[in-house]
Amino acid sequence: xxxxxxxxxxxxxxxxxxxxxxxxxxxxxxxxxxxxxxxxxxxxxxxxxxxxxxxxxxxxxxxxxxxxxxxxxxxxxxxxxxxxxxxxxxxxxxxxxxxxxxxxxxxxxxxxxxxxxxxxxxxxxxxxxxxxxxxxxxxxxxxxxxxxxxxxxxxxx
Length: 157
Hints:
Elements: H1 22-30, E1 41-46, E2 52-55, E3 62-65, E4 71-75, H2 76-85, H3 88-91, E5 95-96, H4 100-106, H5 118-125, H6 129-137, H7 141-144
Antiparallel strand pairs: 1-4, 1-5, 2-3
């Protein structure tokens, strides 16, 4: 007589259901986002080489960073609105953050994967030419390719 449901092999190997592999535990740990208060203020640094201006669509407030590395304190919920309304500030890493928990909370980790903080930029720019080439070559081919001619790079149309 057949029963409904899934079939179970009689000779199937038994496994401990409570046993967790270390790799799985690490993967699960990586996706836990730290709970932050949306009304807290976060220090945002200018990642643009020059004056950076952001005007909030939500409040109309205007934030100005005169030079690269300058800081402004912005409410976390305002940054979330900026992520939705002005994506270029995140895609181009014009907003820099010291706290990785903020980047995770905003959901922009992929965009900041290879981004350095302000001090990291200074270290890179202080390198001699050979070290700088090695640093650039360590990045992905698409990111590191600065073609002399259009045909030098394989990722264009």
